[in-house]
Amino acid sequence: MFYIIEIQKNAEGQYAHLVYTAESQNQAESIYYDKLRFAAISDLPLHSVVLITENGDRHMSKAYRHGEAAD
After folding, report:
1. Which of 23, 26, 43, 51 is placed for a possible disulfide with 60 were both Cys, Cβ 3.0 to 4.6 Å?
2. Which domain holds residue 35?
């Protein structure tokens, strides 16, 4: 089992956490990249996606910062 976690931070600093599941790694990666395609062009200041195993091991992660100065 794999978990795909989408984290969205709006301009007011509030967060939304969306969780999806997949049985296989290929299915999980498909969902992961589908969510990233929206995150890449999002209007949100911070939009992240994480793919983890059922054991909590991180497989992939990516965050997009929009409209903020680079750290």
Report:
1. 51
2. 2-65
In a domain, 14, yes or no: yes
List pLDDT tens digits, range 19-33.
Answer: 999 999 999 999 999
Global pTM?
0.88
Degrees to nearest 5, angle at CA 36 with 10 and 9: 10
Q: Are 33 and 59 spatial neighbours (Cβ–Cβ below 8 Å)?
A: no
pLDDT digits over 55-71, tens only? Answer: 999 999 999 999 865 44
Would you say residue 53 lies in a domain? yes
d(CA 30, CA 58): 16
Residue 34 lies in a domain: yes
